[in-house]
Design brief:
The protein has 253 residues and is an all-alpha fold. 86% of the residues lie in helices and 0% in strands. It has helices at 3-30, 39-50, 53-86, 88-103, 106-116, 122-144, 148-156, 161-199, 205-214, 218-252. α3 runs parallel beside α6 (122-144), α5 (106-116) packs across α8 and α6 (122-144) packs antiparallel against α8.
Length: 253
């Protein structure tokens, strides 16, 4: 770990200790677990939940739904970006639709999706809907900003299209793709959980958040919220690690 990473970690831990301390102080002042449980109470409840099979079934189901939505939207966004880059007509037709998706509140799409599809598929659909325009927008900008000199040089040397894709196009757009994932992962995960809260699928974190709120189980509500945050970080780091490995493998190929 380099010096910059160590400093970044120290700042993160300092901020974490500060906010946990503030949380603990407020819980001591209020003295009402129903209103604000202490960090220790939430941690104890979270560990108790993590010791049950149902916890892992629910978190696994939620992760699967969100990942399906993210991966599907990312692939579709890349394909649509290449399509709109090659066709002005496609860009003219799709650009307003992407703008509409980004501008419309998530709750509206959730209610509409409940009419169109089953409630178990709504979180997948909503997650993909949030991720798609971000990936498409970043990839479209990356394709437009590619240096034309490299493409002209490839034509002069009559490079095969597959080699142009691997040696020129992918290195040019990969940073934008990673930036798109960095922006949309958190949004997609939160949107997917929000969809679960409103649609309450049988096996889901969102259902447990809804039931905790419904029955005024504040400690459980905090515990499941912490679970959402931790899972969001794990998903983000895991996907970035996989992208980094694939990029290194492509460079060594």
């Amino acid at each position: 770990m380099n010096e910059g990473a160590v400093k970044k970690l120290k700042r993160f831990l300092l901020a974490l200790v500060f906010w946990l301390g503030l949380w603990f102080a407020l819980s001591v002042l209020i003295r009402q677990e129903l209103l604000l449980p202490s960090p220790w109470q939430v941690l104890r409840r979270l560990l108790a939940l993590a010791g049950t099979r149902s916890f892992w079934r629910m978190t696994g189901s939620s992760i699967l739904r969100v990942l399906i939505g993210i991966v599907s939207a990312a692939l579709l966004g890349v394909l649509l970006a290449f399509l709109t880059h090659c066709s002005r007509l496609a860009h003219t037709l799709l650009a307003p639709l992407m703008t509409l998706v980004k501008s419309t509140p998530v709750a509206s799409f959730i209610v509409l999706a409940l009419v169109w599809i089953g409630r178990d598929l709504v979180p997948v659909f909503i997650t993909g809907l949030i991720v798609l325009p971000v990936v498409w927008g970043n990839m479209s900008e990356a394709l437009v900003s590619m240096d034309p000199k490299f493409l002209e040089l490839a034509k002069v040397y009559r490079m095969p299209r597959l080699r142009i894709l691997r040696r020129i196009t992918l290195p040019s757009v990969l940073p934008s793709f990673r930036a798109a994932l960095s922006t949309s992962l958190g949004l997609g995960w939160k949107a997917g959980i929000a969809a679960e809260v409103l649609t309450v699928p049988k096996q889901s974190v969102g259902r447990m958040i809804y039931e905790s709120k419904l029955y005024l189980e504040t400690t459980d509500l905090f515990a499941w919220t912490v679970t959402v945050v931790v899972l969001s970080l794990i998903i983000e780091r895991t996907l970035f690690m996989l992208i980094g490995r694939s990029e290194r493998g492509r460079q060594h190929a």
